[in-house]
Amino acid sequence: MRGRGSAPVCGRPSWVLGVRAGAASSSWAVPLISRDGHWPVRPVVGMLVRLVAPEGVPRGGQVGALIGRRREVVAFEEVLAEVASGVGRVVAVAGEPGVGKSRLAGEFLARAEERGFRRLCGTACAYQSDLSYAPVVEALRPLVREAAADGPPDLARLFGGLPWSAPRSGDAALERTRLFEAIASLVAGAAERRPVAMLVDDLHWADPSSVDVLHYLGRAIARTSCLLVLTYRPSEAGAGVRAALASLRRGEWVVDLPLRPLGPEGVAAMVAELLGDSPPAPVVDLLADRTRGVPLFVRELVRALRGSGRLFRSAGRWVLGPDAVDAVPASVVELLRDRVDGLDSADRAVLEAVGVCADVATLDVLAGVCADVPEVADRLASLRLAGLVVEELVDGEVLYRAAHPLLAEAVYARLPPSVRQARHAAAADAIVRRGHVDASRLAHHVGRAGAAVEPARALEVLARGAEHAAARRAGTEGVQHARSALALAGRLGRDDLVPWLLTLLAESASFAGRAEEAAAAWWDAATRAADPRERSHRLLRLAQVETDAGRLTEARDHLAQAVEALRGLDATGLRVDIAQVALVLHTRRDELPAVAAEVAELERVAARSGNRRASALARYGRLELTGYGTGTVDESEVDEAIAAVAADGGAGFATTLQLISLGTALGRGEHAAVARRVDLAVEQARAADLPMLEVLPTAFCGVAQFQAGSWDSALALADKALALGHRFGVPRGISLALAARAMVLVHRGDVDDAETCLTEASANYRDRRLGRLIDVIAAQVALARRDLAGATALVPRTGPYALPVLHLGVRGELAVLARDHDEVGRVAADLRALGFPYAAAVADRLRGLAAGPDGVGLLTKAATALEELGLPFDAAACRLDRAAASAKTDPAAAVAFANRALATFDDLDAAPKSAEARRLLRDLGVRPKPKDRPAGELSAREAEVAWLVAQGLSNAAVARRLFLSPRTVTTHLEKIYRRLGLRSRRELARYVAERAADTQSRRAGT
Prior knowledge:
Largest sheet: 5 strands, parallel
Radius of gyration: 35 Å
CATH superfamily of the domain at 69-258: P-loop containing nucleotide triphosphate hydrolases
């Protein structure tokens, strides 16, 4: 047991789990699925707690899990045990606004109440800080009512309506002592009848008299069954509060619980609780960065993002749209405003200047903004000691920042517009005086200064800032500067600058993922261009944006206009640039003759002019024509073409070249080549500072991981690509990520979810090439629903194909089901003509399936080949086919092959195939092994739901136990069924019982 006065360790695991029982002083022990997939004999004990408002004791009727505070709760349980044994304690919970002090204290009192303690609560308020004893009166009023007949007479000084009056001694100090002793006697008497737990929340706002009496009470309860819980903000605690706590610490009556923000795991757990689902990493990363782990900020930012539509569902997953970082919840602004309003006017002015100046908040700039504030350096030191400002050393100079990102934004939001503009203008002047002006930073302040800066000067600065931002590919920043500059150019009649500013706006909007704004700006710039070359260039860029956005018809028309604008002109470089976009456009539209024509023209240009870019693009086109449909691209040739394009500064197109090789490597089942290309593509995207270029390679890698049998990794990569795609506005990447998710989901039996993904993918972006892939996966969905006709309609009998082996494999499977042996033969011949092992193995499988019992040898050969290629699901499916083919002729071999296939299917969560294998084994007279589920597949919350349902509780009862809604429990249960391959509550109960029995027997054996 911890000794007096020692503080517990306060770390942060992901959350406290479990269910509280109804009876006092007891708790529900909930076994969770362990990392090895077994039900542990020693249960993990935890508790779900009532959700309390972040800065107050339970109110509002909200519920939710207490997250990231396990060690604090464990420490408090120890304190409770001490108090119950007659040793009084003071627990001081310290933390800054929003960190969860009041919620944790409310949980402490709830636990004490369950152990039979009497619960008393009082709260100090900022607007009642002049009311003597207010929180003490609030907390003790229930005890005074009970003691009205025989309580200490001196209580009449505080409480009205008592049947006696307090005697007067004429000595104010003595009367104060008697009052304090009366309060201590009241609490001690109550503790003799029943242990007492008393909370005073927000002690930093308490009046001096309340602080004094609480100090007296804290010393007086040392030998009683009384617990005093105090919460306070260290940065706002006055001298009286600090002195009282220091005095109690000297007497070793205090247990300090400093409460710090949540770590990344805690933020992830809290977001999952708020959203009812585990969010992808980009969502968690943004929230962790913006909130710095403060629970209130996490909750309010999630609400704000959802309310604004910037956090939304895509394919059943939470994703962030563009501009999500701009959200500042009004509730957070209000909370932080209270803290700022408590500062004196000079300190507040300096803090506001820090919020205005942002990345240029050096001492000299702040002094320039706060010209009317004396001793700015001293004010900064004071703010730093108060925990409101931090110092950072950046590039050899000291910068000042708000201690929390949202604090800076809250301070900024409370400034009146006129004051805000004046301070930005002062910041701009201070930046200029420093010399070595950063164009983007200066433009930021000039843009925010509005009318406070002379318009002609502002236009010049904003134009330079937009140019600088575009060069750095800082999309959002460039859009802001370009918009402001365009507005000023219009006001000042500077039409000569508008085309250039429109170009900067279009480029920045493209980097920011704002395709609509980019397209509009390119078109406007093109219509204003007098020079045909400029017009052609802008139409070309418009076509590029439209191609990326999936508006391929419009892109083709604008490319034609770009070519027409150059008629009769010598513009080799620009014609090559047009050919680059045309190649991508034609391949996505499956217009291979047009690709061949472009390649021939590029080869002529290269031969005539020696243009290296034309030569590299021609090589790319030849590789595309060779690889599309056959997958025989030479890796070294791709590397040479990429090197040639990259040498000309074409980072974006170099990534596109990597994608070509990615597609062909996928078609060949060569995962090592896929991994290499993904790494190179991502490296190029990052080197060019173009995160949107990471989306497609990441989605391709998800497809490769599906083929390689790493299905959980495939889903994680698809989620990442989906999140990045929405964040940066990459519709084709979004659709490919959705297709990758659908591939996994349909094979896991989540057919409805897979179909939802495909529907969203088609609506989001669908060119002919990607459309063929979507259609093949849709055919697999139809097959899962036993809709043979629907599946057949989705799979054309002629190429070109997106992934030829996948396409031909599904086409051949349909032919086998239709018993069309001629079609099976044609498909197998097409596969063999591709000329690589993956295709040959799939051809052998189809021929073996069509041959029935006579195809055992072909199926065995195909399974071995697929296994060697690292395609575990395909190999297992082939083994199951082989088992079915030999079920009557060689049942022993059939059992062996079926069991081996079943192990793979269970490992992958391929529920339909697992069920098929189990049916075959039962037909062969063999009892299938129970599913040996791998570790961590159920979330902790799903494990709790599974356990409680297995104990016979209804969904409504489970919801009450876990403080969830019945609908949420139903959703969890549906996911559990899918993930475990079960169909009913009875099967789930049997599964849980079998796992518990298996674990016990293994433990007994050891």
